[in-house]
Amino acid sequence: MVVSLPLLPTMETIPSVLKKYFGFSDFRPYQREVIEKIVEKRDCLVVMATGSGKSLCYQVPPLVVKKTGIVVSPLISLMQDQVMALKQRGIKAEYLGSAQKDFTVHSKAERGQFDILFMTPEKACTVPTSFWSNLLKAGISLLAVDEAHCISEWGHDFRVEYKHLDKLREVLLDVPFVGLTATATEKVRFDIISSLKMDNPYVTIGSFDRTNLFYGVKLLNRGQSFIDELVREISKEVATGGSTIIYCTTIKDVEQIFKSFTEAGIEAGMYHGQMNGKDREESHRLFVRDELQVMVATIAFGMGIDKPNIRQVIHYGCPKSLESYYQESGRCGRDGIASVCWLYYTRSDFAKGDFYCGDVKSEKQRKAVMESLLAAEHYCVLTTCRRKYLLEYFGEKNSADRCGNCDNCKVSKEERDMSREAFLLMACIHSCKGRWGLNMPIDVLRGSRVKKILEAQFDKLPLHGLGKNYPANWWKSLGHQLISRGYLKETVSDVYRTISVSSKGEQFLASSTPDYQPPLILTLTAEMLGEEDNGNTQEEFKTLSTSELEGFSEAEKTFHQMLLEERLELARSVGTAPYAICGDQTIRKISLTRPSTKARLANINGVNQHLVTKYGDHFLQVILKLSQGLNLSLDGEEKVPMASLQTNGVTKVSPLTNKSKKLTSAKFEAWKKWHEDGLSIHEIANLEARSAPIKEQTVAEYLLEAAQEGLPFDWVRFSKMIGLTQEIISEIQGAISKVGSTDKLKPIKNELPEDISYQHIKTYLSMRNSGISLETFQSGSNQTGKDDELAYNASNFPDSTLETCPDRHCEDGISAKSLAEQCDLEMDEVPLPVNSSEEQKLSNASEGEFTRKRQKVSETNEENSTKLKATESSVVEWMKNLDEGATLSTILEHFNGSSEDSVVELINGLECDFLIYRKGNVYRVL
Ligand SMILES: [Zn+2]
To answer: Where is each HRDC domain found (predicted)?
Structure first.
């Protein structure tokens, strides 16, 4: 039986902590559950992909329970970056380690003066017990071990110091332990849990799928001309402000590529193990702070790098394992913006197994190294979806066959029936008795007479020489395809790999004869076509450029670029990284909406309290200046890219129920057919794909709901389709004015002629309520050019609205325009008549409501001292008790003793001060 306990008050503050410090109004998957478990003091193991928001899991609980959180992290530079970014969120963070020059940190930390305290594992194990006992008195909310896979000898980054962290368990008895890692196999997971002596931990394993990353692989032709081309292409990305890391397998490559950048006049950073510590630190610092946009490095660079806005990670040479590839490429696009991971390899990369095994003593570990390299090699030569292969390697079995965002899914490749060649190769491997790698059977097929072949008498095989027509690399490529499709099996023993025919391959051989083979369609790879010079690299780079700003006008693009520069300037002046001020996603949102007030700025996702209080005025000035210069209006509505609508749906909050609702897929489909495919309501209702037609009225309701949810909507076309003319609208307005309310539709309908339907009334109300400006409507009708009837005059709409407001002149100094603006404001907050029920209540939604409010306002002077006045404290106190939050209408209704203007102003102020925040149309207390 499940007993649900009431949430502790601390739990309720979790969402407000998220908005206040991080600027987000929603958690990403898994975060909230983990945070709640930690607050409940349960041990947790968090396995989540880089970029999926792992660190938030340990950053929020200390702020919720108001006790220090200890974070063990492997690298000083990583800790420094994290401390820098947390400080910009107004969080008290510091680190303890050899590089800490401020000697007061230790004693402050001991007294519990930091929200989050980072430590190296060495430090955590060597601070005196008195430190822990003092800090325990102040309170410790958690001990988090970041990059926890370093604890396991099975992990690819084993660090012996991590092994000693278990000692802390005896000291920190009542403190939840949290292990976090981006890559962990089952063995590693088990190791983390047992090494940290976790007690019944809550284990979360998120998806490894980083949907915003594009994966691509290219065969590389080592040489200066290739590097020059690479440098040219990356330079273009640099021009648009994107950061790039180029990972090389050798220091020599790092130096060569770095030199090419310098010669091309591009400032790049360099990072490898032979540089001195100071130079490396400087390189790291400049890159993180966007002073350098390109980093050429060995994999020594960037373990756990905390920079979220890297747009490209390029591997120049095949990495030594798929785990490390996944981790290194995972540093790309951590802010969720589309980013690109390219891997360039040469065949000689695959022969480095011996090299990687150099220091490895045990046979078991050598086998592990070889198998990792083999997996990376398979990834390179794959002809099927790369993402699927990656995900399956990390244990996610149910991914789609084609992701649509990797080179193999995006670029159609030539295919042909290679059943005869496959038969020859498999038969030859079969004859060689599976004791060899791929090279031997290929040499046999190609008719080689080297000593090894003669000794084994393979020259006597009937297959000897039958494959002369193709070069060895052609056959290798075929071999790799047969491996990835399961016809051949490659196994590793010590540092040797052997190839054999799998049972699937045996079946193929059994159903074949030398004259007949069942068809086997395979891909003609670059190796098969002999394309090593990457003639089309440039083309692909172009088509996959990440700098596209979807939905931006030219002026907005300029605005965006200038705002990025302003952020860089600001970051320089305060000595921090631009991303620590605010993320690239947030800059994009600001560029699209251009808020004019602090309240509007505060409402943007990713804007936290610290940013508003510290830099709010500066940002608003810059936004105003740039907008004026570019002739852009302020306070625009954010345009939502279609792609995100389809995946996330659209969530807004209906004030009627105070519950969030989403467009169902049926409604969204109907809207798509109408808006994108141009179908009529009649056509949508009678689609062949439907098992039975649906009512046209239902389709119209769906479309109205989509419009209300903010999807693009052609009101002119819709009005025409349902026969709503301006005459009808005038009549409806007259009827509403007579009835004096839109609480019920029936009385309005009763005032109207028979031929004016409920549909007409609802559409009129929806149009007004959806907050579309009249200009939009008008320009829509201008576009069609023939809707004279519907070419509303921008001035007559507000007027006719005002006519329904008996006390239109009741307030001093309020012009028709500002009243209309208030109407608009009000309309933003009201719901739509979405229910098909004719008696649908429109309680908050209408002129009646508006009228009533104006009346209330005018009445306040003479009557009713019981009416509630809104003050900062009364609003906050009242809202504290509203679990579901409140819409503006609800607030106005409750505080009916204050004028609408003053309430709106008050609410704006509270929002600026982060005492309340808005999510959709609903306000909640922080
Ligand atoms: Zn794919």
So the answer is: 553-633
